[in-house]
């Protein structure tokens, strides 16, 4: 084996060890939280290494039905946010990539799209609260859907625009020459090609909407009106912390995120590979 091959093997081994350490460090908190979810509080705070299997934490979480309502709220928020971001993001991304609108439209749109993610959400709360209050959307799922869509739409537009840019212009020109309208070209030619990009944008938006906490805490009155992230934080009481219930709620809330993250990873890799081949 040559020196170059030996050096390459050592580098690969170093990368594998580093990735293995990162993977273990990432799994430890998840595994520990899952373990606590199946332990009674007395075993959690005890100094002994006793691990009695117990499902009481999950029973208490679901006992009054509030946690189920919060999960339903989060699901509705995710579905509404993803629908808005995909429809507007796809149409806007296609327009920016293929229709070449005038600069007096594109430049302000790109500036706003790049500026919104840089603004701390807390600075937007007063204006958003007054606006939603005037519209009668405070304390409901509809207001949180609009807020989450507003926060995630710039990413959706820019990413969809980049995906459409990977498609050869000849495909669109062939459809136009065959007599298809611009909308027909988009729906029947472009969308099937950028399907991995649509899936990646949808899953990323879903993850961001599911994990959102600050807006849900401020724009709802808590309880059955809040999303699941606010419900989990509500288990932290001033004079007592029910660690078992907190871990059980966190474990249940993490399952959709883990599933969506795995799905997102596959779709993003597929989309990038497709773009590289077309490029």
Summarize the SSE layout with pairings.
Layout: H1 3-37, H2 41-45, H3 56-62, H4 66-99, H5 103-115, H6 121-135, H7 141-165, H8 169-177, H9 182-193, H10 195-211, H11 214-218, H12 228-233, H13 243-278
Helix pairs in contact: 1-13, 3-13, 4-7, 4-10, 5-7, 7-10, 8-9, 10-13
Q: What fraction of the residues are assigned to beta strands by DSSP?
A: under 5%
CATH architecture heading: Orthogonal Bundle
Q: Could you give me the name of the CATH homologous superfamily?
A: MetI-like
Number of alpha- plus pi-helical segments: 13
The gyration radius over C-alpha positions equals 24 Å
Number of domains: 1
CATH top-level class: Mainly Alpha
What is the averaged pLDDT score? 82
Shape: globular
Written account of the structure:
The chain is mainly α and 279 residues long. The chain has one domain: MetI-like (MetI-like fold, Orthogonal Bundle). 78% of the residues lie in helices and 0% in strands. The protein is built from 13 helices and no strands. Helix 4 runs parallel beside helix 7 and helix 5 packs across helix 7. It is globular. The two termini are 37 Å apart. The C terminus is likely disordered.
